[in-house]
Amino acid sequence: MANTAELTVDGKSYSFPTLEGTEHEKAFDISNLRDQTGYVTLDRGYKNTGATKSAITFLDGEQGILQYRGYSIEDLAAKASFLEVAYLLIYGELPTQEQFATFETSIRRHTLVNEDMRKIFDGFPVNAHPMGVLSSLVSAMSAFYPDLEGSKEDTTDQHIIRLLAKMPTIATWSYKRGLGHPMNYPKNNLDYIPNFLNMMFSLPVEDYKVDPVVAEALNVLLILHADHEQNCSTSTVRLVGSSQANIYSSISAGISALWGPLHGGANQEVIEMLEDIKADGGDVSKYVDMAKNAKTTGFRLFGFGHRVYKNFDPRARIIKKAADDVLSKLGVNDPVLEIAKGLEEAALHDDYFVSRKLYPNVDFYSGIIYRALGIPTNMFTVMFAIGRLPGWIAQWKEMREQKEPIGRPRQIYTGATLREFVPIEKR
Ligand code: MLT
């Protein structure tokens, strides 16, 4: 017999079904809680709340396991291409050669962005943060690719291809403009990642050849960022999409959520923190002490700890190794890598950090690699967004296909009770 959860409240007993996922995660199904009992749950930050059933990404925070559609992140990072992983996340299976060829060719053909989007882009101040620009321009795409009123055609696949194809092109505009360099058009004879790198780094005045070491490093980084179940930006995408908002607006909202320093913006904060430590003489133990006394020092160690991983972040392990490999292959000697390792070492042996389960997360080493690849700090979170795009798309599509109801949490009201209106002259 299936398990049930019994709840006794106000002297009455209620029974709620339990459910178990394919990886044995257990939940109480409280969909009818309020109807039956008149109570709601209070779970600030949703630490205990499963917002949906999902078949995309499995994560075990205690064991440090991350899988996309049943494939381990370690396997995918070592063996797959980013676009294969994108296909896997969005369509549920690894593509056959034929499916991949069709998918990849369609993306290749849609990399060009409508010239009128450039006019919108030109209206931004030169120093605008690239994440704000990206979020705005992705939202603007909805004006360029609206679904025809009353059309019965399902255009989701076309929108998916456009997003995957055009977002890297748009992302490079802010970088180029910041340098005062001309923007590059995509070159459709190049693969996805080399095309992005070419738009970022080629100049009309000299030849640019994509370094395979750089392309491979980026491939791994994008795969590691591609999905992470119901994180803040993904939940945002699903919530916005649950109102039947279009995919561009939903993903634009996800980009905004990712921008925050407690989410994707942390990779920028980490490198700035490491730079500050370096500028201050590189004394790691001083900063470990400052982090331990955060209440008085106000110093916060970015890139440590995670809401769901309780022992280690499997992505951080892969990234740390990749950072070593990439820097040595590129012959880059970045002192902040040593500072980062020193900080990790000190923290992992310090009771304060161990007892609080504070160990490096995905954001800790990624910035060091981005920097070695020539990507500037204010573009780090944009790189995260390019990586996360297939995950957002997959989650948006799943939410629609599951016909999820509009997301509408409740609250516990703590404000004033009913009172009489007092006219302004009597206040
Ligand atoms: C992510 O990859 O989205 C971050 O690790 C944050 C999270 O999962 O909560």
Q: How many individual helices?
A: 19
Unreliable residue runs:
none
How are the strands of the largest sheet arranged?
A: 1-2-3
Bound molecules: D-malate
Number of domains: 3
Strand residue content: 5-15%
State the end-to-end distance: 64 Å
Portion in helices: 40-55%
Judging by the overall fold, what is the CATH architecture of the largest domain?
A: Orthogonal Bundle
- Classify the fold: give the CATH topology of the largest domain: Citrate Synthase, domain 1
User: Which word captures the global form?
Assistant: globular
- What is the tally of beta strands? 6
Order of helices and strands: EEEHEEEHHHHHHHHHHHHHHHHHH
Rg, rounded, reads 24 Å
Largest sheet: 3 strands, antiparallel
Helix-strand category: mainly alpha
CATH superfamily of the largest domain: Citrate Synthase, domain 1
* CATH uppermost class of the largest domain: Mainly Alpha
Averaging pLDDT over every residue, what do you get?
95
Describe this structure in words.
There is one protein chain. With 427 residues, the chain is mostly helical. The chain has three domains: 4-50, Rubrerythrin, domain 2 (Single Sheet); 69-263 and 390-402, Citrate Synthase, domain 1, CATH 1.10.580.10; 265-373, Cytochrome P450-Terp, domain 2 (Cytochrome p450-Terp, domain 2, Orthogonal Bundle), CATH 1.10.230. Helices cover 53% and strands 7% of the residues. It has 19 helices and six strands. The strands form two sheets. It has a three-stranded antiparallel beta sheet with strand order 1-2-3. Strands 4-5-6 form a three-stranded antiparallel beta sheet. A hairpin with a 4-residue loop joins strand 4 and strand 5 (65-68). Helix 2 (73-79) packs antiparallel against helix 9 (212-225) and helix 13 (284-292) crosses helix 16. The chain starts with a strand and ends in a 26-residue tail after the last helix. The model has no long low-confidence stretch (mean pLDDT 95). Bound molecules: D-malate. It comes from Spirosoma arboris. It catalyses: oxaloacetate + acetyl-CoA + H2O = citrate + CoA + H(+). Pfam families: Citrate_synt. Keywords: Acyltransferase, Transferase, Tricarboxylic acid cycle. One of its GO terms (biological process) is tricarboxylic acid cycle.
